[in-house]
Amino acid sequence: MKTLQDINFNGKKALIRVDFNVPLDENFNVTDTTRIEAAKPTIDKILADGGSVILMSHLGRPKGVEEKYSLKHIVQTTSKILGKDVKFATDSIGSEAQKAAADLKPGEILLLENLRFHKEEEGGDVEFSKNLAALGDVYVNDAFGTAHRAHASTTIIAQFFPEEKCFGTLLAKEIDSLNKVLNNSEKPVTAVLGGSKVSSKITVIENILDKIDHMIVGGGMTFTFIKAQGGQIGQSICEDDKLELALEILEKAKQKNVQIHLPVDVIAADAFDNTANTQVVDVTKIPDGWQGLDAGPKSLELFDKVIGESKTILWNGPLGVFEMENFANGTIALGNSIAEATKKGAFSLVGGGDSVAAVKQFGLEPKMSYVSTGGGAMLEMLEGKTLPGIAAILES
Ligand code: AMP
């Protein structure tokens, strides 16, 4: 894997694909700077070497040029975070960008306008990629969030740098963390899969069954498994067309010696509402008119034990409807169990959408070994797919 450390950037212009797709408020202030901060180590290393930096990113989903999606709104915040003035080019290609890039001196930073102002970016256009490529000497991809897209700046551009290309620090860390969980893992390996649907996680489940020892199933997915086994799930969420599939997964897991742990009790509610009446019931005996919205206390005890004995933990998907305060306890408790195991030396990776939101919301992020920055990209990696943005760096 070619990383930043393998290249000396002295006197070179590094063209870095970053993910600065940050949220802005109505006054165009950046409300969450995580993604800009995440790119800092890569930028710092290049500047420290004596190189200069050209940053390219998308912001939102503009249809052509739309002022509200201009990256000019983030220049000030980016300058503050990087501790250096960031110059701005009002287009990502063309004469102004070319001049700004050519004039760039060692130690300086240039941010290009939103790549998606050109439809050629998402179209993966070769000519557009070539024009971008002409701006720099070395291509660095540090945008994990878009690594699963074969866009011009994430993938196609790499062919114009047969030798001079590498992963940025953030992207390298993402790849490394997933490898630690799925390929070079210390056993026992436990995957916790929650969230709403079996259908959206099935490819992940199939891909990881060969690599894990335990699988904890939680969240809305639970009830498709419980119903398939003959349990009564009341009004709980269920995919009736996936009952067969659920049984097949259980059978496959058995063949592969993977222990599946389903909740044994749930917090059942008489409505999908934070103020609904609740009761703790056996997961196989949920009364009519009630639905399971969170894992119950016995389940959490069971999960805590499995997690406590694990050396490697992957967590994707919440254990309940954590967006509602009264059904967040299972997700918080599980997060605490993983935090505890991590403290004792286990490696924990949280990735893929909602569980990342949950660990952030409940202040658990610093207690995990690694929290992924890319929802869709992480899910595709868990599915065993080769991401085009990663493949493009590895190809020579
Ligand atoms: P996913 O995007 O598939 O990871 O699903 C995340 C969503 O699953 C969250 O918005 C949760 O509120 C939801 N969820 C978790 N547990 C349940 C449940 N028992 N019933 C309904 N939705 C759930």
UniProtKB/TrEMBL annotation:
Keyword flag Cell membrane: no
Keywords associated with the record: ATP-binding, Cytoplasm, Glycolysis, Kinase, Nucleotide-binding, Transferase
Binding-site residues for substrate, renumbered to this chain: D19, F20, N21, R35, H58, L59, G60, R61, R116, R149
Alphabetical list of CDD domains matching this protein: Phosphoglycerate_kinase
Alphabetized Pfam families for the sequence: PGK
Major location (coarse): cytoplasm
UniProt-annotated binding residues for ATP: K201, G292, E323, G352, G353, D354, S355
Binding site for (2R)-3-phosphoglycerate: R35, R116, R149
Enzyme Commission code(s) on record: 2.7.2.3
Cellular location(s): Cytoplasm
GO annotation (BP), single: gluconeogenesis
Gene Ontology molecular-function annotations: ADP binding; ATP binding; phosphoglycerate kinase activity
A single Gene Ontology CC term: cytosol
Pathway involvement of the protein, from the record: Carbohydrate degradation; glycolysis; pyruvate from D-glyceraldehyde 3-phosphate: step 2/5
Enzyme class: transferase
Signal peptide: none
Domain of life (superkingdom): Bacteria
Reaction catalyzed: (2R)-3-phosphoglycerate + ATP = (2R)-3-phospho-glyceroyl phosphate + ADP
InterPro entries: Phosphoglycerate_kinase, Phosphoglycerate_kinase_N, Phosphoglycerate_kinase_sf
Family under the similarity heading: Belongs to the phosphoglycerate kinase family.
PANTHER family the UniProt entry points to: PHOSPHOGLYCERATE KINASE (PTHR11406), PHOSPHOGLYCERATE KINASE 1, CHLOROPLASTIC-RELATED (PTHR11406:SF23)
Subunit text: Monomer.
Name the record gives this protein: Phosphoglycerate kinase
Organism: Flavobacterium caeni
Gene name per UniProt: pgk
